[in-house]
Backbone:
C-alpha cells in the first residue's frame, strides 16, 4: 500500500494557542488604549508593572481568550481559542482546527498591523496537537511529518525534535524567515473523581490523553537591516501564516 502523506489523512491539527509577536525600537511607546483600539471594548482584566515596563490585558474573544502582553521593545497578542473560565485553563474538549482558528486570528492581526508601529521583527507562534489513542500511535503519526528522523514507534519515548529551517521570503527582498519547529508526543494524565470506585477505596480514576504535538515559531531573521512599511507588514504576516499551514499539512519540508 502506498504510504500516505499527512495532507492525505483525516488527521487535523487542533489549536491550543496562536501568538503574534512584534518587536520595535525601545523609544516607541505603546499607547494605553491599544486594547480598545483593536478590540473595540475594554478588557476584562488589566495588570500593570510600571517599574518593569510590563503591562497585560486580557478578555473574551470568540469562544476563547485573548491576551495582550507588553514589555520593553516587544508586545505579544496571544489567542487561546478554547478557554474554560471556571477552571482558568485550556479546554481540550473544544479545541478548533488550525485553518478556521487562523482565519479568526487574522481578523485581529489585520487591525493590529494597521496601527502606526515601527516594526523591526515579526513572528507567528503556535502550539498544535492531534489527539491519538496511545503513545505508539502518537509516534506513528509523528513519523508522517518528521521525514528526517527514523522513529521506531514501539520502542520510542521522550522524543523531542527541534529544528530551524530557514526560507527566503517571497514578499521582501533579502529577508529570511526562521521556521523553528518542535515535534513531540505529549502524554497528559488527569485525576478524575470516580464515586463508582469508592467501594474499592479508590475515589480517583486516572485518565490518560496522548497527542502528537507541534510547536512553531516562524519569525523574520534578526540580522535583516531593512524596515517594514505598512504596505509590507500584512502580506508578510500572511506569508508566515501560509508557511505555518504548509508545515502542518506536509511536515518538515525544505
Residues:
Amino acid at each position: 500500500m502506498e504510504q500516505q502523506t499527512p495532507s492525505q489523512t483525516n488527521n487535523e491539527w487542533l489549536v491550543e494557542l496562536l501568538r503574534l509577536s512584534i518587536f520595535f525600537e525601545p523609544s516607541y511607546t505603546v499607547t494605553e488604549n491599544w486594547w480598545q483600539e483593536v478590540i473595540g471594548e475594554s478588557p476584562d482584566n488589566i495588570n500593570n508593572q510600571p517599574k518593569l515596563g510590563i503591562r497585560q490585558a486580557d478578555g473574551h474573544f470568540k469562544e476563547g481568550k485573548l491576551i495582550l502582553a507588553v514589555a520593553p521593545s516587544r508586545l505579544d497578542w496571544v489567542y487561546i481559542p478554547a478557554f474554560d473560565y471556571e477552571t482558568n485553563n485550556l479546554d481540550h474538549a473544544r479545541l478548533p482546527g488550525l485553518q478556521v482558528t487562523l482565519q479568526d486570528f487574522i481578523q485581529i492581526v489585520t487591525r493590529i498591523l494597521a496601527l502606526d508601529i515601527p516594526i523591526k521583527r515579526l513572528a507567528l507562534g503556535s502550539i498544535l496537537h492531534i489527539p491519538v489513542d496511545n503513545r505508539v500511535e502518537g509516534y506513528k503519526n509523528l513519523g508522517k511529518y518528521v521525514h528526517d528522523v527514523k522513529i521506531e514507534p514501539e520502542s520510542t519515548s521522550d522524543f523531542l525534535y527541534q529544528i530551524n529551517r530557514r526560507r527566503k521570503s517571497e514578499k521582501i527582498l533579502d529577508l529570511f524567515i526562521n521556521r523553528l519547529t518542535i515535534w513531540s508526543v505529549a502524554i497528559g494524565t488527569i485525576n478524575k473523581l470516580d464515586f463508582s470506585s469508592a467501594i474499592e477505596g479508590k475515589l480517583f480514576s486516572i485518565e490518560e490523553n496522548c497527542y502528537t504535538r507541534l510547536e512553531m515559531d516562524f519569525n523574520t531573521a534578526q540580522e535583516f537591516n531593512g524596515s517594514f512599511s505598512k504596505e509590507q507588514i500584512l502580506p508578510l504576516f500572511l506569508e508566515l501564516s501560509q508557511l505555518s499551514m504548509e508545515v502542518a499539512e506536509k511536515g518538515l519540508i525544505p
User: Anything to note?
Assistant: Residues 1-9 have pLDDT under 50 and may be disordered.
